[in-house]
Amino acid sequence: MRWLQLHLRSRRVPLATATGTALIALAWALSLAYTDSPTINARTASLAIMLAVVAVGTTLTGADDALDHTMAVNWPLRRGGHLLLASAAITALLSLSMITDTRYEPFALVLRNTAGLLGLTALGATLLGAALAWIAPLTWTLIAVLPMMGPSRDLKMQVAGWPIQPVGTTAATACAAILAVTGLLAYALRGCPVRPVSETAPDR
């Protein structure tokens, strides 16, 4: 248990959890205040999920990159577990709205978008580092929520705007699944790039 506490603190998990919770709650409160619909629309839900996974992205590396790649620790298993727990935590936070009059639903959309955007964040962290992991999910989500985007029968539109496509859209589900699996495997197996010592050394 002591190791777990240190692990969570070293990766700033408490701060990320508080930030993600606040952003999800803010989107819920705004929807409650300004709409009469009992269901939070896909655009707002996608933005809330994106902001939550961006917060999680800051936890994908620790202060010591060398430690995160040491062979003495089974890092692939721990990194994979980290992502799965983060996905479960975000989904649980969104699901709490089910007990209120304004809800993040359907649950399948919440699950699809959380998995896909978190996988995209993990893939970004693997390629660019945790500090830049937010670029990919932010960019794709902002494109998807543009006014000209919407439910479509066109395959390209379904892929480009997969976060806002209706549940059951095959292309959107496949895109999210590919991002989720690719991001999970890439991050679990490789982790984040090792930063130069000058970036990780404490200030003197």
Number of helices: 9
Ends apart, CA distance between termini: 32 Å
**Secondary-structure element sequence?**
HHHHHHHHH
Strand content: under 5%
- Main β-sheet, in a few words? none
* Class derived from helix and strand content: mainly alpha
User: How many strands appear in the DSSP assignment?
Assistant: 0
For the residues shown, what is the average pLDDT? Answer: 85
In percent, how helical is the residue content?
55-70%
What is the radius of gyration? Answer: 17 Å
Approximate shape? globular
Structural notes for this entry:
This protein has 204 residues and is mostly helical. The chain contains 9 helices and no strands. The chain has helices at residues 2-10, 13-34, 42-57, 75-95, 107-128, 135-144, 155-160, 170-190, 197-200. Helix 5 (107-128) packs parallel to helix 8. The longest helix is centred in the first third of the chain and has 22 residues, at 13-34. It is globular and about 50 Å long. It starts with a helix and ends with a helix.
